[in-house]
Amino acid sequence: MARRDLARTVIEGGRYNYNRWERRQSHAEARATAHAWLRRLTVDDAAAGASAPPPLRPVHRAFYDKLAPLYRWLHAQVGRRWDDVRADVAARFDVRTIAGQHIVYDHLLFEVEPRWPRDPRYQRFVIDPAGVLRHGPRWQRRRKRPPRPAWAPPWSAARVDGAWWWIGDRPCGRCVVGDRCRYGHLRIDGARYHFTAATRIRRLTPTEVGRLTSSPPEVRALLAWAGPTLAPEAAALSRQGRP
Question: Are residues 212 and 164 in contact, defined by beta-carbon separation less than 8 angstroms?
Fold first, then answer.
């Protein structure tokens, strides 16, 4: 959190990028139609009193609020009783101001206690039957995948014929054709190389096998390869588009 005063940290940060584009686009359309209307008036003076320039297409405002400190604070409250958290919200935010009302009722409480029926899949926080604040399905769905272990090379692991192999894209030879080549390419030190996909690179060493088998299930799932594998002598060059 950037400041101790959370109510002053959470402020509006202008409009969303798409909303700015929509506003500029509506003004561009209005200018183009106004120019076309003026060109018609140069050849038909009688139409000046019977017509008017087309109106501007309305674009509703969509503000980009700086809510990351607010959500971080709510994440820190997970596991506490919601009544206690609600009391802290009332003590920390001043809802007598327009900004305070907007932050508390339109963002903070909306993520926990929506004012209208809402799909529960899109809630960041929920209250369990015991009245405790918990992470909602939206937060659980956005959890990051476990990081790739430092000891593992940039390939996948598969068990083939009773042995563990590293499976990946195997460079075969440098391309001399250029953009007209019909095969796919790997970039290595700025040069283009032909490659074979899902090819056995090399066997895992006993140390790598021990690290793989002793890793947590989510790490093993991250490194596992479930598709077909090819021996280097049986693999064909990959076509453009990487099959």
Answer: yes
* Local mean pLDDT, 10-residue blocks, the chain (243 residues): 53 70 86 85 72 81 74 85 88 79 81 75 82 79 70 90 90 81 80 86 92 89 86 78 42
Q: Which helix (H) or strand (E) holds 6?
A: helix 6-9
Give dist(CA 90, CA 101) in Å, integer.
Answer: 11
Sign (positive or negative) of CA dihedral 71, 76, 81, 85: negative
> By C-alpha distance, which of 9, 153, 140 is closest to 68?
9
Cα(85)–Cα(211) distance, rounded to whole angstroms?
A: 43
- Of 234, 166, 236, the C-alpha closest to 203 is 166
Partners of 135 in beta bridges: 125
Contact (Cβ atoms closer than 8 angstroms) between residue 54 and residue 36: no
Q: What is the DSSP letter of 104?
A: I
End-to-end CA distance of the chain: 46
H helices within 11-126, ranges in order?
Answer: 17-43, 47-50, 68-76, 82-92, 98-103
Q: Cβ(10)–Cβ(67) under 8 Å?
A: yes
Residues 109 and 127: their CA atoms lie apart, in Å, by 12
Q: Please report, as a single letter, which amino acid is at residue 151.
A: W
Residue of 118, 11, 113 lying closest to 68 (CA atoms): 11
